[in-house]
Write a structure and sequence with these properties.
The protein contains 6 helices and 9 strands; from the N terminus they run ααββαβαβαββαβββ. The protein has a single domain, classed as Vaccinia Virus protein VP39 (Rossmann fold, 3-Layer(aba) Sandwich). It is α/β, with parallel strands linked by helices. A 7-stranded mixed β-sheet has the order 5-4-3-6-7-8-9. The protein is globular. Helix content is 29%, strand content 26%. Helix 1 runs antiparallel to helix 2.
């Protein structure tokens, strides 16, 4: 895998575009400028890797558009060294952004094909990540509680087991809805049994499904 001056220039242009769209967290913008997105897309899409668009990554899944990655990450309000559970590793691109921001990342992918590919690329990039093949609805109770939880697929409702695995004072960012579009929701756990939710607009994600495939 090579990262040329052209790729770096395209990333800088992408970051300028994200800043113009309202992403103002400089640490996130720096992470996006550092991570070669073309490593995470199929070769047929590589020349468009720095367009602000989602692309197919196989197994009926997509790599989210950079704005969505930046927006969700900004809502997460991530601090260095926080423990983050990511539901839906996908290509591993969002995972890489979280690692660049200094998080301790636990990530779950239900599609074996994507799990294998993401594991290989994250290892190749020397990112220290705990990656699991599993059901995102179950979370990872043995490693809970998590300071932050990021869900990168559209859930019909907020999974109770994920709420239970969120630390008090922690936040979960999750798109919720029954149709092709979902409402981006931030859940803050204010006590062991109480939660505060806020909505942040409509987005479109692939559905969050149960079980393991492949």
């Amino acid at each position: 895998m090579t990262d040329s001056f052209l790729h770096k220039g395209l990333r800088k242009k992408l970051v300028d575009g994200l800043r113009a769209k309202g992403i103002d967290n400089e640490a996130i913008l720096s992470a996006i400028e550092n991570v070669p997105r073309h490593f995470f897309v199929d070769s047929g899409f590589a020349r468009h890797a720095y367009d602000d668009k989602p692309f197919s990554i196989g197994a009926g899944q997509t790599i989210s558009q950079p704005f969505t990655v930046a927006f969700q990450t900004q809502l997460l309000d991530l601090k260095k060294f926080e423990k983050v559970l990511e539901i839906g590793t996908g290509s591993g691109y969002q995972t890489s952004i979280l690692v660049e921001l200094g998080a301790k990342v636990y990530t779950i992918e239900r599609q074996r094909e994507l799990f294998t590919k993401a594991q290989a690329i994250l290892n190749e990039m020397n990112y220290s990540v705990y990656i699991f093949l599993g059901d995102g609805y179950e979370g990872k109770p043995m490693f809970a509680p998590f300071d932050k939880i990021l869900v990168t697929a559209g859930a019909k409702e907020i999974p109770q087991k994920l709420l239970e695995q969120l630390a008090v004072g922690g936040k979960m960012v999750i798109p919720v809805g029954n149709s092709e579009t979902q409402e981006m929701i931030v859940v803050e756990k204010t006590s062991p049994t109480k939660y505060k939710t806020e909505k942040y607009g409509k987005f479109s994600f692939v559905p969050m499904l149960q079980g393991i495939e492949g």
